Protein backbone atom coordinates (compact mmCIF):
# COMPACT_ATOMS: atom_id res chain seq x y z
CA UNK A 1 0.00 0.00 0.00
CA UNK A 2 2.81 2.43 0.90
CA UNK A 3 4.51 1.74 -2.44
CA UNK A 4 1.26 2.42 -4.29
CA UNK A 5 0.79 5.73 -2.50
CA UNK A 6 4.33 6.81 -3.35
CA UNK A 7 3.91 5.88 -7.01
CA UNK A 8 0.62 7.75 -7.28
CA UNK A 9 2.14 10.78 -5.59
CA UNK A 10 5.00 10.84 -8.07
CA UNK A 11 2.66 10.48 -11.02
CA UNK A 12 0.30 13.24 -9.95
CA UNK A 13 3.12 15.69 -9.23
CA UNK A 14 5.18 14.85 -12.31
CA UNK A 15 5.86 17.75 -14.69
CA UNK A 16 4.98 15.36 -17.52
CA UNK A 17 1.31 15.61 -16.62
CA UNK A 18 0.51 18.51 -18.89
CA UNK A 19 -2.21 20.72 -17.38
CA UNK A 20 -2.47 18.24 -14.51
CA UNK A 21 -5.47 15.96 -14.09
CA UNK A 22 -7.78 18.97 -13.72
CA UNK A 23 -6.80 20.54 -17.04
CA UNK A 24 -7.00 17.33 -19.02
CA UNK A 25 -10.41 16.45 -17.65
CA UNK A 26 -11.72 19.97 -18.22
CA UNK A 27 -10.72 19.79 -21.89
CA UNK A 28 -12.41 16.40 -22.18
CA UNK A 29 -15.61 17.68 -20.56
CA UNK A 30 -15.64 20.66 -22.93
CA UNK A 31 -15.39 18.38 -25.95
CA UNK A 32 -17.93 15.84 -24.65
CA UNK A 33 -20.64 18.49 -24.58
CA UNK A 34 -19.99 19.48 -28.19
CA UNK A 35 -20.04 16.06 -29.87
CA UNK A 36 -22.50 15.37 -32.67
CA UNK A 37 -24.94 12.50 -32.10
CA UNK A 38 -22.92 10.25 -34.42
CA UNK A 39 -19.62 11.00 -32.72
CA UNK A 40 -21.18 10.71 -29.27
CA UNK A 41 -22.61 7.28 -30.08
CA UNK A 42 -19.29 5.97 -31.35
CA UNK A 43 -17.34 7.44 -28.45
CA UNK A 44 -19.73 5.84 -25.96
CA UNK A 45 -19.53 2.51 -27.77
CA UNK A 46 -15.73 2.46 -27.73
CA UNK A 47 -15.47 3.66 -24.14
CA UNK A 48 -17.89 0.95 -23.02
CA UNK A 49 -15.30 -1.66 -24.00
CA UNK A 50 -13.47 -0.76 -20.78
CA UNK A 51 -16.42 0.45 -18.75
CA UNK A 52 -15.65 4.17 -19.09
CA UNK A 53 -18.57 6.57 -19.17
CA UNK A 54 -17.05 9.72 -20.66
CA UNK A 55 -13.91 11.17 -22.22
CA UNK A 56 -12.76 12.72 -18.94
CA UNK A 57 -12.31 9.26 -17.42
CA UNK A 58 -9.69 8.35 -20.06
CA UNK A 59 -8.11 11.79 -20.48
CA UNK A 60 -5.00 10.98 -18.41
CA UNK A 61 -4.58 7.36 -19.51
CA UNK A 62 -1.72 8.26 -21.87
CA UNK A 63 0.29 9.63 -18.94
CA UNK A 64 -0.50 6.63 -16.78
CA UNK A 65 1.01 4.25 -19.36
CA UNK A 66 3.83 6.55 -20.49
CA UNK A 67 7.12 4.69 -20.64
CA UNK A 68 5.52 1.27 -20.82
CA UNK A 69 5.93 1.24 -24.59
CA UNK A 70 9.71 1.62 -24.42
CA UNK A 71 11.66 3.76 -26.86
CA UNK A 72 9.01 3.31 -29.55
CA UNK A 73 6.25 4.91 -27.49
CA UNK A 74 4.88 8.25 -28.72
CA UNK A 75 6.36 11.44 -27.34
CA UNK A 76 4.13 13.87 -25.48
CA UNK A 77 5.96 16.88 -26.93
CA UNK A 78 7.05 18.48 -30.18
CA UNK A 79 10.14 20.64 -29.71
CA UNK A 80 9.82 23.64 -32.03
CA UNK A 81 12.60 26.26 -32.18
CA UNK A 82 11.81 29.44 -30.27
CA UNK A 83 11.67 31.55 -33.40
CA UNK A 84 9.07 32.02 -36.17
CA UNK A 85 9.91 28.93 -38.18
CA UNK A 86 7.07 26.53 -39.05
CA UNK A 87 6.77 22.95 -37.89
CA UNK A 88 9.16 20.70 -39.80
CA UNK A 89 8.00 17.06 -40.03
CA UNK A 90 11.53 16.03 -41.01
CA UNK A 91 13.19 17.45 -37.91
CA UNK A 92 15.16 15.09 -35.69
CA UNK A 93 12.47 15.62 -33.09
CA UNK A 94 9.90 13.94 -35.35
CA UNK A 95 11.93 11.38 -37.26
CA UNK A 96 13.82 9.62 -34.46
CA UNK A 97 10.68 9.38 -32.34
CA UNK A 98 6.98 9.83 -32.90
CA UNK A 99 6.52 13.46 -31.88
CA UNK A 100 3.23 14.87 -30.69
CA UNK A 101 2.10 16.14 -34.10
CA UNK A 102 2.77 12.82 -35.80
CA UNK A 103 1.26 10.90 -32.89
CA UNK A 104 -2.04 12.77 -33.23
CA UNK A 105 -2.08 12.21 -36.99
CA UNK A 106 -1.34 8.50 -36.62
CA UNK A 107 -3.95 7.96 -33.91
CA UNK A 108 -6.62 9.81 -35.89
CA UNK A 109 -5.94 7.52 -38.86
CA UNK A 110 -6.60 4.48 -36.66
CA UNK A 111 -9.60 6.00 -34.91
CA UNK A 112 -11.27 6.90 -38.19
CA UNK A 113 -10.73 3.48 -39.78
CA UNK A 114 -13.72 1.33 -38.82
CA UNK A 115 -12.06 -1.74 -40.27
CA UNK A 116 -9.53 -1.64 -37.42
CA UNK A 117 -10.18 -3.69 -34.27
CA UNK A 118 -12.27 -1.83 -31.72
CA UNK A 119 -9.58 -2.15 -29.06
CA UNK A 120 -7.04 -0.45 -31.33
CA UNK A 121 -9.52 2.33 -32.06
CA UNK A 122 -10.23 2.78 -28.35
CA UNK A 123 -6.51 3.08 -27.65
CA UNK A 124 -6.25 5.67 -30.42
CA UNK A 125 -9.21 7.58 -28.96
CA UNK A 126 -7.58 7.71 -25.54
CA UNK A 127 -4.35 9.03 -27.05
CA UNK A 128 -6.19 11.65 -29.12
CA UNK A 129 -8.12 12.95 -26.11
CA UNK A 130 -4.88 13.36 -24.17
CA UNK A 131 -2.63 14.59 -26.97
CA UNK A 132 -4.96 17.32 -28.26
CA UNK A 133 -4.90 18.84 -24.77
CA UNK A 134 -1.16 18.22 -24.48
CA UNK A 135 -0.25 20.09 -27.66
CA UNK A 136 -1.98 23.23 -26.37
CA UNK A 137 0.37 23.52 -23.38
CA UNK A 138 3.03 26.03 -24.54
CA UNK A 139 5.99 24.23 -22.97
CA UNK A 140 5.09 20.97 -24.72
CA UNK A 141 5.78 22.63 -28.08
CA UNK A 142 8.88 24.59 -27.10
CA UNK A 143 12.53 23.73 -27.68
CA UNK A 144 13.09 24.97 -24.13
CA UNK A 145 11.24 22.64 -21.76
CA UNK A 146 10.94 25.25 -19.01
CA UNK A 147 13.13 23.46 -16.45
CA UNK A 148 14.28 26.73 -14.89
CA UNK A 149 13.56 27.31 -11.22
CA UNK A 150 11.37 30.33 -10.48
CA UNK A 151 9.71 31.83 -7.42
CA UNK A 152 5.95 31.72 -7.87
CA UNK A 153 3.77 33.04 -5.04
CA UNK A 154 6.69 32.89 -2.66
CA UNK A 155 7.73 29.30 -3.36
CA UNK A 156 10.44 27.83 -5.63
CA UNK A 157 9.00 25.73 -8.45
CA UNK A 158 10.10 24.63 -11.90
CA UNK A 159 8.61 26.82 -14.62
CA UNK A 160 7.16 23.82 -16.42
CA UNK A 161 5.11 22.97 -13.35
CA UNK A 162 3.85 26.55 -13.12
CA UNK A 163 2.19 26.05 -16.51
CA UNK A 164 1.23 22.41 -15.94
CA UNK A 165 -0.55 22.80 -12.63
CA UNK A 166 0.29 25.82 -10.46
CA UNK A 167 -1.70 28.34 -12.48
CA UNK A 168 -4.75 26.07 -12.33
CA UNK A 169 -4.61 25.40 -8.59
CA UNK A 170 -6.78 28.39 -7.72
CA UNK A 171 -9.37 27.61 -10.40
CA UNK A 172 -12.51 25.52 -9.94
CA UNK A 173 -11.58 22.34 -8.08
CA UNK A 174 -14.10 20.34 -10.10
CA UNK A 175 -12.91 19.86 -13.72
CA UNK A 176 -16.47 19.75 -15.04
CA UNK A 177 -17.28 23.07 -13.43
CA UNK A 178 -14.04 24.51 -14.81
CA UNK A 179 -15.09 23.38 -18.29
CA UNK A 180 -18.52 24.94 -17.82
CA UNK A 181 -16.97 28.23 -16.72
CA UNK A 182 -14.60 28.29 -19.67
CA UNK A 183 -17.48 27.66 -22.07
CA UNK A 184 -19.74 30.22 -20.37
CA UNK A 185 -17.56 33.09 -21.64
CA UNK A 186 -19.53 33.61 -24.85
CA UNK A 187 -17.24 36.17 -26.57
CA UNK A 188 -14.15 34.07 -25.86
CA UNK A 189 -15.90 30.90 -27.04
CA UNK A 190 -16.99 32.51 -30.30
CA UNK A 191 -13.48 33.85 -30.93
CA UNK A 192 -12.04 30.39 -30.23
CA UNK A 193 -14.68 28.66 -32.34
CA UNK A 194 -13.59 30.67 -35.36
CA UNK A 195 -10.09 29.18 -34.94
CA UNK A 196 -11.25 25.61 -34.36
CA UNK A 197 -12.72 24.43 -37.65
CA UNK A 198 -9.64 22.63 -38.99
CA UNK A 199 -7.78 19.56 -37.74
CA UNK A 200 -4.25 20.96 -37.85
CA UNK A 201 -1.94 19.69 -35.07
CA UNK A 202 1.07 21.41 -36.63
CA UNK A 203 -0.65 24.80 -36.43
CA UNK A 204 -1.73 24.09 -32.84
CA UNK A 205 1.88 23.34 -31.94
CA UNK A 206 3.08 26.55 -33.59
CA UNK A 207 0.54 28.55 -31.57
CA UNK A 208 1.78 26.98 -28.35
CA UNK A 209 5.41 27.62 -29.30
CA UNK A 210 4.53 31.26 -29.99
CA UNK A 211 3.14 31.63 -26.47
CA UNK A 212 6.35 30.18 -25.05
CA UNK A 213 8.45 32.47 -27.22
CA UNK A 214 6.48 35.68 -26.70
CA UNK A 215 5.31 35.37 -23.09
CA UNK A 216 7.14 32.71 -21.11
CA UNK A 217 10.65 33.46 -22.39
CA UNK A 218 10.50 37.11 -23.47
CA UNK A 219 8.77 40.41 -22.79
CA UNK A 220 8.13 41.93 -19.37
CA UNK A 221 6.96 38.59 -17.95
CA UNK A 222 9.54 36.39 -19.64
CA UNK A 223 12.19 34.48 -17.71
CA UNK A 224 15.86 34.28 -18.62
CA UNK A 225 16.46 30.93 -20.31
CA UNK A 226 20.09 30.96 -19.13
CA UNK A 227 19.32 31.37 -15.43
CA UNK A 228 17.55 29.41 -12.72
CA UNK A 229 19.09 26.05 -13.59
CA UNK A 230 19.55 25.32 -9.89
CA UNK A 231 16.97 25.68 -7.13
CA UNK A 232 19.09 28.29 -5.36
CA UNK A 233 19.11 30.45 -8.49
CA UNK A 234 15.33 30.66 -8.81
CA UNK A 235 14.11 33.74 -10.67
CA UNK A 236 11.21 35.59 -9.03
CA UNK A 237 8.14 35.94 -11.22
CA UNK A 238 6.30 39.30 -11.15
CA UNK A 239 3.61 39.66 -8.49
CA UNK A 240 0.91 39.90 -11.16
CA UNK A 241 2.14 36.90 -13.17
CA UNK A 242 -1.03 34.94 -12.44
CA UNK A 243 -3.28 37.77 -13.66
CA UNK A 244 -1.33 38.04 -16.92
CA UNK A 245 -0.81 34.33 -17.55
CA UNK A 246 -4.22 32.96 -16.61
CA UNK A 247 -6.13 34.40 -19.61
CA UNK A 248 -3.60 32.66 -21.85
CA UNK A 249 -4.05 29.36 -20.00
CA UNK A 250 -7.83 29.65 -20.27
CA UNK A 251 -7.61 30.37 -23.99
CA UNK A 252 -5.37 27.35 -24.58
CA UNK A 253 -7.74 25.08 -22.61
CA UNK A 254 -10.79 26.50 -24.37
CA UNK A 255 -9.21 26.00 -27.79
CA UNK A 256 -8.15 22.48 -26.86
CA UNK A 257 -11.71 21.50 -25.92
CA UNK A 258 -13.25 23.02 -29.04
CA UNK A 259 -10.64 21.48 -31.29
CA UNK A 260 -10.96 18.08 -29.67
CA UNK A 261 -14.70 18.21 -30.35
CA UNK A 262 -14.14 19.25 -33.97
CA UNK A 263 -11.55 16.51 -34.39
CA UNK A 264 -13.80 13.76 -33.03
CA UNK A 265 -16.87 15.02 -34.90
CA UNK A 266 -15.06 14.96 -38.23
CA UNK A 267 -13.25 11.68 -37.59
CA UNK A 268 -16.31 9.78 -36.33
CA UNK A 269 -19.06 11.18 -38.55
Automatic annotation (TrEMBL):
The answer on whether this UniProt entry bears the keyword Glycoprotein reads yes
Q: Which UniProt keywords apply?
A: Disulfide bond, Endonuclease, Glycoprotein, Hydrolase, Metal-binding, Nuclease
A GO biological process of this protein is: DNA catabolic process
- Supply the name of the protein: S1/P1 Nuclease
According to its UniProt entry, this protein's organism is Hansschlegelia beijingensis
Tell me where on the tree of life, at the top rank, the source sits: Bacteria
Asked if the record carries the keyword Nucleus, the reply is no
| PANTHER family noted in UniProt | ENDONUCLEASE 4
Q: Which GO terms describe its molecular function?
A: endonuclease activity; hydrolase activity, acting on ester bonds; metal ion binding; nucleic acid binding
Amino acid sequence: MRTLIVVLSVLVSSPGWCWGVKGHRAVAFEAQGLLTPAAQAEVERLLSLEGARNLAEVSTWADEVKGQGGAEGPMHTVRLPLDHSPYDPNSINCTRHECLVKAIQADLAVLGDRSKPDQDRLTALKYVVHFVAEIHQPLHASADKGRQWVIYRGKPVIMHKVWDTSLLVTQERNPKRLAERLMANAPAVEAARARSNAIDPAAWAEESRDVARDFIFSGPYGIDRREGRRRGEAQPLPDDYYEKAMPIVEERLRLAGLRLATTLNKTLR
